Amino acid sequence: MKLLVRNLARTTTEHELRVLFQAHGTVTTCNLVLDQETGASKGFGFVEMPDEKEANNAINQLNQSKVANSKIRVKLAQN
Q1: Is the pTM of this model over 0.85?
Q2: Residue pair 62/74 in contact by the 8 Å Cβ criterion
Q3: Whole-number Cα distances in Å, 68 to 8, 9, 10, 47, 77
Q4: From the first residue on, what is the mean pLDDT of each consecutive set of 10 residues in the chain (79 residues)?
Q5: Pick the CATH number of 2-70 from 3.20.20.70, 3.30.70.330, 3.40.960.10, 3.10.450.50
Q6: Taking every annotated instance into account, which residue ranges of this chain make up the domain RRM (predicted)?
Q7: Which phi and psi angles does 34 have, rounded to 5°?
């Protein structure tokens, strides 16, 4: 399942995002969306988790949680 993670602090790294979701299951890919000109985070990213149960658990546990002083939003990504 591909998850959309929004409202990330601009200082959150791809590694930190991966570690956050790995606490809830297997993560196959993790992509932080970066500005092409500056290389800075745009404040959102995508995480892919192959196990539907683990992905749903991650959504339930992490949506509206505080990470680096930002209340993140996690939901199923639209394909």
Answers
A1: yes
A2: yes
A3: 8, 6, 9, 18, 22
A4: 97 96 98 94 97 98 96 93
A5: 3.30.70.330
A6: 1-79
A7: -115, 150
